[in-house]
Design brief:
This protein is α/β, with parallel strands linked by helices. It is 36% helix and 19% strand. The longest helix is centred in the N-terminal third of the chain and has 21 residues, at 102-122. The chain starts with a strand and ends with a strand. The protein binds magnesium ion. Residues 201, 203, 227-228, 253, 303 line the site of magnesium ion.
């Protein structure tokens, strides 16, 4: 299965409402920035990373795919995923100048496209290719009801509605002020009752004293995890927080390498690992993190930069994955949307990784790749 062409693409898809906010970001669109890989079999694979839809930086990713990664792949056998992963990780054009960041996001898109191709060639959904179902159901938790930009009343109503719709887990954003966020958390807990898991996400905004102050107020609300409480790379701070609070600590959506995760595991700094196939260098890298997490008995809750189009396959196939994030912004852009029914993700059926865009999405959301 020889690679004959690699074509980058950019889609900008609107979020729910016109805008959402967390403690550090304000966005109106989700960027689906990736690559189509064509082969001499006639099969094409699609892979993408997830961005905040800034065209200027999205075009740096597509440029990296086209100018730096693609020349190393044309003519190669698309089935050699691990060998090609290492070839790109040692790309002479990039290793000195870009060991993480845009280069990794570009690498992610290609690795995912290769997995998609492998599934299509085998005529199997990716979860089957990864070894089959290790669980009957994948529980979904809803993030889209909990943005910081949602006013209190609407937040409470949205959380209650999600539970009525069948969700047994939700997540709300924190990181504005300790008092406001603690008040909103308690209101949501009251509205959803004691049986629904309720996680919070600080997006790396606060320092350790602020987190400790917040945790003391939040403990009464039975928090499932506190995600990115501190700056993303601060192993020591997360280890301290994990020791000093009763609330489990979660992290990983901004970590680029298995080495970064290894340090958090070794220092017992996190209770939940949240790798993302679109942030790390694709599924190949995330599988390694999931295996390591499992060996430490740390559960994995992948961050959904792919809006779970691909993570749903991982979640059905890997024993470390305990629960999966649901954000519905881009699902209808794909031939097999990642759907939640009665609080659980539907098991994908189509061959591949769930990353094939529809013609309608292509026509409606496509941006210039250059
Ligand atoms: Mg997060």
């Amino acid at each position: 299965m020889k690679i004959t062409a690699i074509t980058p693409f950019i889609l900008h898809v609107p979020v729910t409402g016109s805008m959402i906010q967390d403690s550090t970001h304000t966005i109106s669109h989700w960027g689906v920035v990736g690559a189509q890989i064509d082969t001499d079999t006639g099969l094409s694979g699609f892979g993408f990373t997830g961005t905040h839809a800034h065209l200027a930086s999205d075009q740096l990713i597509t440029r990296c795919i086209e100018s730096c990664h693609a020349p190393l792949l044309i003519g190669e056998d698309a089935r050699d995923i691990r060998r090609l992963w290492h070839k790109l990780a040692r790309n002479p054009a990039l290793q000195w100048v870009g060991r993480a960041g845009i280069t990794t996001l570009a690498h992610a898109a290609i690795d995912i496209a290769l997995w998609d191709l492998k599934g299509k060639a085998a005529q199997l959904p990716l979860w089957k290719l990864l070894g089959g179902q290790v669980r009957d159901k994948v529980r979904a938790y809803n993030t889209d009801i909990g943005w910081l930009s949602i006013p209190d009343e609407q937040l409470v109503a949205g959380a209650a509605r999600a539970v009525e719709d069948g969700f047994t887990g939700i997540k709300i954003k924190v990181g504005s002020s300790v008092e406001r966020d603690a008040r909103r958390l308690a209101m949501v807990r009251d509205a959803i009752g004691p049986d629904v898991t309720l996680a919070i996400d600080g997006n790396g905004k606060w320092d350790l004293p602020t987190c400790l102050r917040f945790c003391r107020l939040a403990e009464a609300s039975n928090v499932y995890w506190f995600e990115e409480p501190l700056w993303y790379d601060d192993v020591k701070g997360h280890a301290q927080l994990a020791r000093q609070s009763n609330i489990p600590v979660a992290l990983g959506e901004q970590l680029y390498t298995p080495d970064a995760f290894a340090e958090f595991f070794a220092q017992q700094a996190i209770h939940w690992a949240q790798p993302d196939v679109t942030r790390m260098a694709g599924l190949t890298d995330v599988l390694q993190v999931c295996d390591t997490a499992h060996s430490f008995r740390v559960p994995v809750a992948p961050h959904a930069g792919d809006m779970s189009q691909m993570h749903v396959h991982l979640a059905y196939a890997h024993p470390a994955v305990a629960v999966l994030e649901y954000i519905p912004w881009i699902k209808d852009c794909f031939t097999e949307p990642s759907e939640v029914v009665a609080g659980h993700f539907r098991l994908p059926q189509e061959p591949g990784a769930g990353t094939t865009p529809t013609a309608a999405a292509w026509a409606r959301f496509r941006q210039p790749a250059h």
